[in-house]
């Protein structure tokens, strides 16, 4: 077996408990929605709720669903400023809300063409601790990381070409988890 570790960086408790609690309160005012995506020709509701924020023209498309950004909330803009050392060109964020351990995210790569390939993706977790798994696309070797409140995970440029990641179900988890993935999107990639 080839032992290749994923090229990620994890910063434990990057944000304080107070910052996380304030951010969780903020999320309760967001227009979270459970959208429908197309998988293998069938429409399905995703097993989580989410909202996409960003600069004008930073549309995001996955599973044949185009999402236009809502205007940045001031609090999230401030949070993004804290991550500019990891990725200086953040202009959008996907907020995923998992009500409990039944809600999840399947294996995928964030390799949509509107994401600038030479940029890092910065991920902040608040709420319940959950396993985050990463596997190599060719070797299938996988790694599991427990992400807890205030942890930041940075996926470097070009990682998405070789790796997939997921948030598996954890039925014993009965508290909410929120994940924010800050990204650099090519503005006006999808002209309407």
TrEMBL record:
SUPFAM superfamilies: Clavaminate synthase-like. The keyword S-adenosyl-L-methionine does not apply. InterPro entries: AlkB-like, AlkB-like_sf, ALKBH3, Oxoglu/Fe-dep_dioxygenase_dom. Gene3D superfamilies: Alpha-ketoglutarate-dependent dioxygenase AlkB-like (2.60.120.590). Coiled coil: none annotated. GO terms for molecular function: dioxygenase activity. Keywords: Dioxygenase, Oxidoreductase. The keyword Ubl conjugation does not apply. It comes from the Bacteria. It holds the Pfam family 2OG-FeII_Oxy_2. Residues 89-186 form the Fe2OG dioxygenase domain. This is Alpha-ketoglutarate-dependent dioxygenase AlkB. It comes from Shewanella intestini.
């Amino acid at each position: 077996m080839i032992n290749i570790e994923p090229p990620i960086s994890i910063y434990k408790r990057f944000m304080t408990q107070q910052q996380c609690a304030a951010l969780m309160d903020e999320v309760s005012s967001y227009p979270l929605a459970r959208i429908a995506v197309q998988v293998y020709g069938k429409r399905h509701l995703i097993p989580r709720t989410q909202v996409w924020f960003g600069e004008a023209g930073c549309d995001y498309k996955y599973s044949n669903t185009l999402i236009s950004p809502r205007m940045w909330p001031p609090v999230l803009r401030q949070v993004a400023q804290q991550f500019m050392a990891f990725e200086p060109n953040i202009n959008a964020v996907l907020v995923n809300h998992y009500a409990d351990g039944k809600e999840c995210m399947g294996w995928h790569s964030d390799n949509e063409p509107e994401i600038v390939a030479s940029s890092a993706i910065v991920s902040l977790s608040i709420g319940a601790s959950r396993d985050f798994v990463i596997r190599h696309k060719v070797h299938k070797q996988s790694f599991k990381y427990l992400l807890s409140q205030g942890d930041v995970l940075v996926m470097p440029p070009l990682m998405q070409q070789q790796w997939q990641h997921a948030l598996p179900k954890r039925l014993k988890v009965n508290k909410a988890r929120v994940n924010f993935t800050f990204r650099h999107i090519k503005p006006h990639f999808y002209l309407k």
